Amino acid sequence: MTIITLSIPSTNPSFFSSSPKSFKFNPKSSSQLSPSPTSLPKTDKVIIIGAGLAGLAAATHLNSRNIPFLLLESSDAVGGRVRTDIVDGFRLDRGFQIFITAYPEAQKLLNYPSLNLQKFYSGAKIFYDGEFHTVADPLRQFFDSAKSLTNPIGSIFDKLLIGTTRIGVLTKSDEQILTSEEFRTIDLLKQLGFSESIITRFFRPFFGGIFFDLELETTSRLFDFIFKCLALGENTLPANGISAIPEQLAARLPSDSILLNTEAVSIDFGNSESPRVRLKNGDVLNSGLGVILAVEEPALVKLLAGRQIRAIKKPVRSTLCLYFTAEPDDIPVRDPVLFLNGSGRGIVNNMFFVTNVAPSYGPPNKALVSVSLIGLFKDEPDDELVDKVVQELSGWFGDRMVKEWKHLRTYRIEYAQPNQCPPTNLKKNPNVEPGLYLCGDYFTSATFDGALVSGRRAAESLLKDRGFVG
């Protein structure tokens, strides 16, 4: 076993500078990522465990203050749950993921033009009573929205109520939304006056697909935040896959600051001011500056075994995503639109033709189909689920067309999101032990933006505790 001590030097002026069917993934920024912990630095660094969005955000904030850090990632690439695989020339995001351009923290951290964001249609097509009905954003798709006023996806009053609800969230700051009195989303919708028909046919499949929660038990704070972001921004996909987001953050960090395939197995506290990180290979890292733990809740429990930490009492949110390939003539539309299941029956929640949104997700003259289910379906083998999905979508688009699709891959994602049913605290203190700071979307809001915010807050808390900021 090797013990590597990262002690605080007596002076370091730079600290006070404020300059602002096998799974395979090959990150484009891999040249700046160290593949393994063959030689660990022996200089003073903050240790960050987990290179998902939260860990990358924490690293970005420390780097902007010239605070040295070491970012440890157990897998072969950055991103955490935000990953993209290349399979037979197709880009497969690990599960249904959409990037909303109005995320406020993301706007501060990311370079949108370089992500080459591809937009969805501002609305959705809802399958109900054997046919599709359009729900459209009246500010972006006025004529489509006007034509949809009399369709059966809710009453005219429901559709006008969506407008007033939109105005309501736009008049509130993010701080007001995330600290407001909270309810379950389903209870909020009923209190606002929405009918059961629009809740069942639109809100359940749409927001249920965002929260991975068909019962809409997620906190109204998160509903209002997402609703506001949807009103202000666009639903998009980066042209190179959802993994382009964490890759962009990683590419800006020092070339030797990220160690991949480096698994931390425990956090030891001992008598020092900062905890020690024990690695799977037996090495132990001591940091005098502190440790930021940016892992999912289940991994957190294992790393802090025996410590007084908050137990996971709510079941996590799970999802299942199936990808199919098709010939261009075997898909029904060319529009970049999201399809929702408003029938209240079947297992498909939502689907879309990915290459209609971002042609770069597939080879030339090939179509990519993404189908999402809510839950894990543990008792059903992949081949049976594929058959059920094909049969169900044959009822949507026609048997002849869907039977030509070829199954490419199925992703079962047990931990897709933390469960954020009320009561919630979306502004938790990241400093839970002396020298130990926690971050992740379970600490703030279960969104891309929440993960980024939590990483920044953890870094800010560490800097304040160490006296690097006032």
From TrEMBL:
In Swiss-Prot or TrEMBL terms, this protein is called: Amine oxidase domain-containing protein
What are the residue boundaries of the Amine oxidase domain, all occurrences included?
Answer: 53-462
Question: What InterPro entries does UniProt report for this protein, alphabetically?
Answer: Amino_oxidase, FAD/NAD-bd_sf
Q: Which organism is it from?
A: Vicia faba
List the Gene Ontology MF annotations in alphabetical order: oxidoreductase activity
| PANTHER family listed in its UniProt record | AMINE OXIDASE
| Annotated Pfam families | Amino_oxidase (PF01593)
Q: Which SUPFAM superfamilies match?
A: FAD/NAD(P)-binding domain (SSF51905)
